[in-house]
Amino acid sequence: MEIGNWKQAIQPEPVPRVLITETAIRRRVRQLARDIKRSCSRRTPVVLGLMNGALFFLADLLRELPPVFEVRCAAIASYKGTKSTGKITGLENIAGDFKGRDVLIVDDILDTGRTLAAVRARLLRLGAKRVDVCVLLVKKKTRRRAVRVRWAGFEIDDEFVVGYGLDYDGLHRGLKDIRIL
Ligand code: 5GP
Ligand code: MG
User: Which residues, judged by CB distance below 6 Å to any ligand atom, belong to the binding site of ligand 1?
Assistant: First the structure.
């Protein structure tokens, strides 16, 4: 054994367990895009992706949506490690002209709902006419604040997940499937 590998040999990195496969995600994203297209056929929305978690979901969804959908991103955070801090940072990153617009918020996961409630309130303050929410994942148990989600990919149990854009302090974001840490 090479000396440089000793740590790995003694304490192997835990491999997170797969919860939702790459194939299942791809299929579901296509269905969501189809539903969104159908109901947004009259007014063109601004798609607002919440970074960094929605990075992959937004990119895949956009590839299935018409190019006339305007895209904006804002970096919003509330988590440290595997816990919600309850304090949402980055709301000021949501700026610019939203007056009279239909906005479609795209986020990775709805947990307590605090993030989406705050983002939604901010958009309405900025003059958005209508705000809809599309999230890839919804946690079954921990939903406390009632946020109306119009499009949701999957309902999951109350576990901390990573992959497909979701991170644990910056790690695991690049995984192609969604895994339980
Ligand atoms: P909320 O404000 O709804 O409690 O938290 C939503 C945000 O917390 C999500 O956009 C996401 O960034 C983060 N989050 C909540 N649950 C998880 C999880 O299981 N895994 C990861 N990686 N992030 C989570
Ligand atoms: Mg997020």
Answer: 53, 78-79, 84, 107-115, 160-162, 166-167
Structure tokens given for 142: 């921990």
**Strands of the sheet with 151-156, listed across from one edge:** 70-75, 46-51, 102-110, 130-139, 151-156
Q: Does 111 participate in catalysis according to the annotation?
A: yes
From 79, 94, 144, 145, mutation site for ligand 1 pocket: most ligand atoms within 8 A of C-beta:
79
Which atom in ligand 1 lies closest to the alpha carbon of residue 88? 2
In whole angstroms, give the CA distance from residue 43 to residue 45. 6
Ligand showing the shortest atom-to-Cα distance for residue 82: 1
Which residues lie closer than 8 Å to 93 by C-beta, 6 or more apart?
Answer: 74, 75, 76
What does pTM read for this prediction? 0.90
User: What does the pLDDT look like over 92-133, one tens digit per residue?
Assistant: 999 999 999 999 999 999 998 999 999 999 999 999 999 999
- Asked whether the CA dihedral 70, 71, 72, 78 is positive or negative, the reply is positive
Q: In this structure, what token pair is assigned to residue 117?
A: 């409630």
- In sequence order, the β-bridge partners of residue 137 are 109, 154
pLDDT digits over 142-151, tens only? Answer: 656 678 999 9
